[in-house]
Amino acid sequence: MKKIAVAGSLHYDIMIDAHHRPEKGETVMGTACRYKFGGKGGNQAISAAKSGAEVCFAGAVGTDEQGRFLVDTLRQAGIDVSAVALVADCPSGMSVAISDEEGDYGAVVVSNANQQIPTNLFQGVQYWENVGMLVLQNEIPEAVNMQAAIAAKQRDIPVCINAAPARPLGEQFAALIDILIVNAIEARDMCGITVEDLASAQRAATILAERFNKVVVTAGEHGVAWCEAGVTAQTLHAQKVKLVSTHGAGDCFVGALCASLTAGNSLAEAVVSANAAAARHVSQSNV
Predict the structure, then answer these.
(1) What gap in Å lies between CA 17 and CA 279, rounded to an integer?
(2) Up-side HSE of residue 82: CA atoms within 13 Å toward CB?
(3) Which of 72, 107, 123, 127 sits 20 to 30 Å CA-CA off 237?
(4) Could you tell me which residues come within 8 angstroms of residue 120 by beta carbon, excluding any fewer than 6 positions away?
């Protein structure tokens, strides 16, 4: 089985539980606080590793205690961290997320060292050895994603991007993408379709498949739609579970999907596997 190369963000997460998320100008008393490993890149790498894939990671952290924690967590998950750069005089990335009693959350991210990932990380032969897929996200500069994607294409390695958070993709970069994974908000921003159920998710996937070879549109509690260029889009309902927290569900889905694809499964099979992994994730405490 080929490896998954992930290039992306690492964040030291401060997780706060509260009755509700504050409105403008409001102070809310929290009920609990936790410190966690995070960042879309890091979370997706760990999800892929938990799903059975061999994973190597490229990114950057500061030379601080938080950075050591982030790298150690990747290493403990069995992930190759030889391409994680240490950036002096810059703190590691971090975020603060507030989860409410309904299990939903909002977060603020400060990128810090994630904005300083050296592009020469992708020039080394070792990083690409036996790699079957490159996975990217939008939490690092597009210039870094571009260099990683170019290096992958030079080696005939397919490029997958979870285009989150939402931002425009440059034409040159978009042309390098083989697999696009977006949620309802990102799909709307990219194709103009308001995703509010599976039917609208299916329409969004169909439109986006005119630009990308494979498209997956996640629609939260409704489920997921996917489409391959030239093929009718399909949908799958979300599994019925008791919601504990949605935090990290999207990253769990992406990692599981890419692990399944790298193992040789079809896109439909990979979606089923990732949908089940995300359902397990949201139904348990991820402390």
Answers:
(1) 21
(2) 11
(3) 107
(4) none
Judge whether 185 and 162 are in contact, CB under 8 Å. no
Q: CA–CA separation, 32 vs 150, rounded Å?
A: 44
The set of residues, in sequence order, having a beta carbon less than 8 Å from that of 98 and lying 6+ positions away, is 16, 17, 18, 21, 22, 28, 30, 105, 106, 107
What gap in Å lies between CA 158 and CA 155, rounded to an integer?
9
Q: Name the pLDDT band for 126 (thresholds 50, 70, 90).
A: confident
Q: Which residues pair with 57 in a beta bridge?
A: 6
Residue 135 three-state SS: strand
Q: Compute CA 19 distance to the chain's CA centroid, rounded to the nearest angstrom.
A: 27
CB 204 within 8 A of CB 225: yes
Express each pLDDT in 29-57 by its tens digit.
999 999 999 999 999 999 999 999 999 99
Given the structure tokens 């992406």, which residue do they identify?
254
Evaluate if residue 102 carries a pLDDT over 90.
no
Whole-model pTM: value is 0.91
Rama region for 165: left / alpha / beta (φ>0; ψ in -120 to 50; rest): beta
Q: What gap in Å lies between CA 168 and CA 152, rounded to an integer?
A: 21
Q: CB–CB of 205/190 below 8 Å?
A: no
Question: Residue 161: is it exposed, middle or buried by C-beta count within 10 angstroms (0-12/13-18/19+)?
Answer: buried
Positions of E strands within the chain: 3-7, 11-18, 30-38, 55-62, 80-87, 93-99, 105-110, 131-137, 159-162, 179-182, 214-218, 223-228, 234-237
Q: Which one, of 38, 95, 111, 33, lies nearest residue 70 by Cα?
A: 38
